[in-house]
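Appendix B, Record 12. Input sequence as logged:
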Amino acid sequence: MTAPWADWDHVLKVDPDKDLADGDSFDDVMETGTDAIEVGGTLDVTSEKLERVIDACRRYDVPLYQEPNDPTVVVDDDALAGYLVPTVLNTADPFFLVGAHKEWARIADVPWAKTTLEAYIVMNPEASVAQFAQADCDQRPDDVRAYAQVAERFFGQDIVYVEYSGTLGDPEVVAAAQDGTDDATLFYGGGVHDYDSARQMGEHADVVVVGDLLHEEGCAAVAETVRGAQDGGA
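Logged structural output:
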């Protein structure tokens, strides 16, 4: 059975700790053309904040996923198509590779059929996610290619995610990750802010992820990145 993200070009990540841009509503969010919504963030995420976003999105047809940053804030809601759960490959702390995941399995019944790991390679040392997960971001393109291969071949991951959160990444690095995958879907996130940057990253990544742009510039800007990711057509 083909995974839904195999046909995606664009994902919009909604941070439940941030407001939409002035004048925007969730009607506008759903009209951007994105293939899916991920609800999640790195800091100050609570179940209550997540539930508010999920409730605002539940009546639309765009697939809705939670990306939990902590097992204690996983929301059980039929509106969710599933859970996309980060595991950080280049972390210095095993908690972010497998420890948090073990805790989720220990304290709750994990909905395994709806849960997929995202094998993160975090590349921006200034990003909150890099500091939170103690990521070693000093990685050359050949390192990233090897991480992508390990994720797919050793660990059987269906999603490899190159994350430059807060800045636009190096296309050579994203291309290296693409070269390291055969069947896995390659996600790219970080600094995508317009049509051109989305198209540039879409030439190497299967799926372009946009987040901060939604909260800072709004849905019209996001819609431009959807077009760019589609035209990139990796």
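The longest strand covers residues 115-122.
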